[in-house]
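Protocol step 4 of 5: obtain the predicted structure for the target chain.
Materials: sequence only (see below). No template structures provided, no constraints applied. The aim of this step is simply to have a reference model before the mutagenesis design in step 5. Sequence pasted as it appears in the construct record:
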Amino acid sequence: MPIDPKIEQPTRAMLGHAIRHELGDLASVIQAAGNDTLLASIPLCLFASAYIAIDVCKRWPTNADIRQIAKSAAESETGLDITEQEIHEYLSAITIRSSITSHMSPRPDRPPGRTRLPCLARWNPRI
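Step 4 output (structure tokens):
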């Protein structure tokens, strides 16, 4: 299934600004894109994080690889309130277990097949 260019382009821009720590530009792109585009970009970002972990390891990552990535990420100066354990659990869910869907829980107020996606994104007051 092809990726909708209306979702892909803003997602690429968001990730580019995030990687370069251009928080003002990131906030502008997010605001301009709107809620629907932002929500549709989440699955692309989830897949991107798994591919980045694979690329960094030059192979499918092991638990030890994921622990090292989580440690490095937690020690980085992003200003995000996220722990090494939270990063490890997230990356393990999408790389080692190959699917984050095992961590989704059905909601009775949603139609069948619709679930709530847990995210480790945190609000950053500097944005």
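Step 4 remarks: The longest strand covers residues 105-106. Residues 5-116 form one domain.
Proceed to step 5.
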